[in-house]
Amino acid sequence: MNCTPNSWTHLPTQVAGRNRGWRRLVIDAIRKDPAWKGGDYAVQPPGLDVAAEMLWLVSSNPVLRQAQAPTLAQADATLDAYVAEFRKTDDANDVLYAVEASRDYDPGPALANIRAPLLAVNSADDLINPPELGILEREITRIRNARAVVIPLSPETRGHGSHTMAALWKAELTQLLRESANGGAAAGRP
Fold this sequence. Notes:
mainly alpha, two-stranded parallel sheet
């Protein structure tokens, strides 16, 4: 299945704003589709297609999506191909479960309890967790031995999907592991 809770990382706060918005669109596209039949369908409901299109939109960056689909015809063909591939492996109920799994996500109240060295990675082109909100940078200060890194937009980044590309953050992880092995603080704080 392409759509798992682990593949959708979050900021260290309650899911809200655009992040909640795209999730709500996906949920509504499936749940309000009469063919969903309360989850008791024999054939995948058409609302799954809308969910797939929304996931295509938010899971990468605008530069890459424009390069992949620079004309109206190419955009339609690209979306059609993505939806067709998505339907081969994904199920409407599974997508709902994965997207709704964040409903009660809110680590904010317990952030100060984290004692292990922590590295938080985001990318400058993340449409789901946009760095311009400043949430990560604000909240990371509440965690002892933590630091945040924002990967700059590049031809290698994939927006929210950048977290699945270890080459982009491998050096930061290597540094965290080295500091942890030496008993040092990742952020230089005691």
